[in-house]
Amino acid sequence: MNRVLPHPSKGGAAAMSIAFLLACPLLQGQRDDAEQAEFFESKVRPVLIQNCYECHSAEAKELKAELYLDSKAGWMKGGVSGPAIIP
Predict the structure, then answer these.
(1) pLDDT digit string, tens, across residues 2-28
(2) What is the pTM of this model?
(3) Distances (CA, A) of 85 to 1, 22, 61
(4) 37 contacts 43 by C-beta, under 8 angstroms
């Protein structure tokens, strides 16, 4: 299962939503890469854009915790606390 670390100022609500969305394909069985990409783009990325990109993207005015969530490389590398999502 994927693990998402909650953002301290958001009370973890956004992180819990993302964790649920990332777990949904696991509950439905294996999906092919195209289905996984479509699921991520339609269900997960909008949550990240709405709740996280303001502080955690290349477009952020001030990047917080050295964490980029606008790319797979960014969330796999993580920020000062390590990886943000662990598949």
Answers:
(1) 445 545 555 455 665 566 555 555 555
(2) 0.64
(3) 10, 10, 23
(4) no
